[in-house]
Amino acid sequence: MGLAALRARRYHSAMLNTIIHGSATDKPPLLIAHGLYGSARNWGVIAKRLSDERQVIVVDMRNHGHSPWTATHSYPELANDLAEVIAAHGGQMDVIGHSMGGKAAMMLALNHPEKIRRLLVADIAPVGYSHSQIQFIEAMRSVDLSSLQRRSQAEAQLAEAGVDPALQSFFTQSLDIPNRRWRLNLDTLADQMPKVLSFPQTDAVWQGMVLFLSGASSDYVKPEYRAQIRARFPQARFAKIPGAGHWLHAEKPREFEATARVFLNVSP
Predict the structure, then answer these.
(1) What is the CB-side half-sphere exposure of residue 116 using CA atoms within 13 A?
(2) Which residues constitute the domain of residue 158?
(3) Active-site residue 81, yes or no?
(4) C-alpha to C-alpha distance for 145 and 181, rounded to whole angstroms
(5) Which of 11, 81, 101, 201 could lock 33 by a disulfide, CB 3.0 to 4.6 Å apart?
(6) CATH code for the domain of 251
(7) Distance of alpha carbon 142 from alpha carbon 160, whole angstroms
(8) Contacts of 183 (CB under 8 A, 6+ apart)
(9) Residue 193 belongs to some domain of the structure
(10) Is residue 70 in some structural domain?
(11) Is residue 34 part of a domain?
(12) pLDDT by residue, tens only, the chain of 268 residues
């Protein structure tokens, strides 16, 4: 086995597929949960860099990547999936979650408070959103998979469907070209989109350290959401990355990594 393979090992838990970077250290391991239409692979660079101090475990969320496909996709279920991974790796972790993964991580903290030491929520709030992501499912469904031989062919068809170039590249990372299929359960994600956009009503409160890190150019975490955030997460802190939008970890990876590192290592 080569050095790269040793550094990033792929495992299947009973539920989620995981990619593990680095080895256990005296610092808590870190779990990373990606956003809608993403995968563990999207976080490879940041995970590898953060693994110089701690073990980093990146998951494919259900209905994404190499994880199982299910008929439902609710945040309590996604939180249970993450709790299962944490239980299999020592019982407690620091957690980073972006967008959909951020909502799943917040639900994890509220429903399984003992599983998380610190939580970084990337560009999302525990609120419902009105901007549907269904148009991207329709764009991916419009790609003719039957004759697909190269990723660039899919990107060209997504361009014809009006998808931004950066998102074309992002979406096609979830293409299984040899088998001419998407590694995304588009049917379930379309059916469950109202649940993806919402956040469950709950009276639960998590008292742990949590950083809400946003892109300065994003409108996903508005000032008027802070009261709702603090009602669930009284220790919430807020920070922004200049020049970044919703995909802050992809647009400003070094800045994201540096901020995460400071937050995870700072004394309480």
Answers:
(1) 30
(2) 134-188
(3) no
(4) 7
(5) 101
(6) 3.40.50.1820
(7) 10
(8) 39, 64, 65, 66, 174, 175, 176
(9) no
(10) yes
(11) yes
(12) 344 433 444 444 458 999 999 999 999 999 999 999 999 999 999 999 999 999 999 999 999 999 999 999 999 999 999 999 999 999 999 999 999 999 999 999 999 999 999 999 999 999 999 988 899 999 999 999 998 999 999 999 999 999 999 889 999 999 999 999 999 999 999 999 999 999 999 999 999 999 999 999 999 999 999 999 999 999 999 999 999 999 999 999 999 999 999 999 998 7
Is the full-model pTM beyond 0.90? Answer: yes
Q: Is residue 117 part of a domain?
A: yes
Identify whether residues 9 and 111 lie together within a single domain.
Answer: yes
Residues with Cβ < 8 Å from 69, sequence gap 6 or more?
A: 62, 63, 185, 188
Out of 99, 174, 214, 218, the active site residue is: 99
In the residue annotation, 249 being an active-site residue is answered as no
The answer to whether 17 touches 65, Cβ cutoff 8 Å, is yes
- Pair of tokens at residue 48: 């590898």
Active-site choice (73, 98, 112, 246): 246
Q: Which of 144, 187, 191, 219 is catalytic?
A: 187
**Which tokens is 227 given?**
């009261």
Tokens of 108: 């994890």
Per-residue CA distances from 86 to 14, 120, 135 (Å): 12, 16, 33
> Which run of H or of E encompasses 259?
helix 253-265
Other beta carbons within 10 angstroms of residue 46's beta carbon come to 21
Which amino acid, one-letter code, is at 91? Answer: G
Known catalytic membership, residue 174: no
